[in-house]
Amino acid sequence: MRKVINSLVVNDEGKENAQSIIFVHGFPFGKWMWEKQVKVLQKRYRCITYDMRGLGESYVGDGQYTMEAYVYDLYSIIDKLKLEKPVLCGLSMGGYVSLRAVEKEHDKFGGLILCDTKADGDDDNGKLVRAAKINQINTEGLDQFIDGFVVPLFSEDAPKQKKKLVSDVLLKAKKNNPVGVKGALIAMLSRTDTNKMLKKIKIPTLVIAGSFDKLTPPVKMRDMAAKIPNSDFAIVPRAGHLTPLENPGGFNDLLIGYMKKYFD
Question: What is the homologous superfamily of the domain 2-263 according to CATH?
Fold first, then answer.
């Protein structure tokens, strides 16, 4: 069911009284990236996906976003839908939002799934890189930026072996409003480092890495998992940074195993 909450377009699927899972998408994508996960998990759970502010179908506004605003948006969905102890599943930028949300209000959540993400804030070089990306969108246009940014997120062979997938993802990403994409870059630049809170996480946590992910490689994701007490770590084979898109079957198996272990 499609809903609008706090100017965000939200899809609420599955069993209303079952354990809820909120999927928080990566950059520069939208709720559509979780379609193959929702299709499987909605049979047993309540699955919530949404377009983050500025992306997909959600409100764009002036593009002046912060990570704190993204977290507030997430809370607004939880409160409006009256979700009790939802599981958060965030990929990349969605992981940044999830980590900060748990850091602020740990007891609001029942579980955490961190996919191809990191707890580090941007260092000085990282901030300069994001500034350069904003400038690229201003000077060369969104399409040029998307082509250069998104393709390397896939595994090296994906552009040849999974042409349709890569083409579809590029097409959908290019439908975003440039103002919203730049706003998301500002939000990521504004995020804080959440490494210190990892040892304080007490809810069941699954950390997932793509075997061919160059942006947040398995060794880095394993290090993150080691800092979270009693967390589980798993690698999705044949996938780069976009694990739920490149290998949805392998990714879904991990999600189902985690949900059965802790919530059935």
Answer: Alpha/Beta hydrolase fold, catalytic domain (3.40.50.1820)
